[in-house]
Amino acid sequence: MANRGLITAIAAVGAAQLLKPAIHYWQEGEWRPGKLVGSGGMPSSHSSGVSALAAYTAVKYGVRTPEFAIAAMLGIVVMYDAMNIRRHAGEIAIQVNDLDADVEKLAGHHPGIYHARRKEKLKESLGHQPSEVAAGAVLGALIGVLGAATARA
């Protein structure tokens, strides 16, 4: 027997990922197919998944159940992490990636002459802005309710 709640949550993650390239193109005018599999961006697929699970659980079992409490707490932790910890880690990565050039400018040297630069940049798109988390949460809640409404008893 399939776990409809899990399938609904995974479908919400997939829906958010599928929307990312189109939304990025609409916002930035730049087509980036890599957004299909990358983290960060609009809407948050993590938020979409946990919100779908919480909404599905609320509709199927009620909000006064341990199942909903677990799904809701998972969602709170994931969305807090996306908006705060992972977003700040991305902002730090931007600073670290710019550090070589900043130090050379301050020292008055030409880039790359006096020390070896980092070969690879740190990934900068890790977390989400609050609007990206909110959009993911709304998308996920809609998919969660739809999943519960179409599930067999």
Keywords summarizing the entry:
153 residues; mainly alpha; 0% strand
Which helices and strands occur, and which strands form pairs?
Blueprint: H1 4-28, H2 45-61, H3 66-107, H4 130-150
Helix pairs in contact: 1-2, 1-4, 2-3, 2-4
> What is the makeup of the main sheet?
none
General form? elongated
| Rg estimate, integer Å | 20 Å
Helix content: 55-70%
Number of strands: 0
The low-confidence runs, each spanning 5 or more residues with pLDDT under 50, are none
- Count of separate DSSP helical elements: 4
| Amino- and carboxy-terminal Cα gap | 13 Å
Percentage of residues in strands: under 5%
Helix-strand makeup class: mainly alpha
| Mean pLDDT score | 84
Spell out the helices and strands N to C.
HHHH
Q: How would you characterize the overall build of this protein?
A:
There is one protein chain. With 153 residues, this protein is mostly helical. Helix content is 69%, strand content 0%. α1 packs antiparallel against α4 and α2 (45-61) packs parallel to α4.
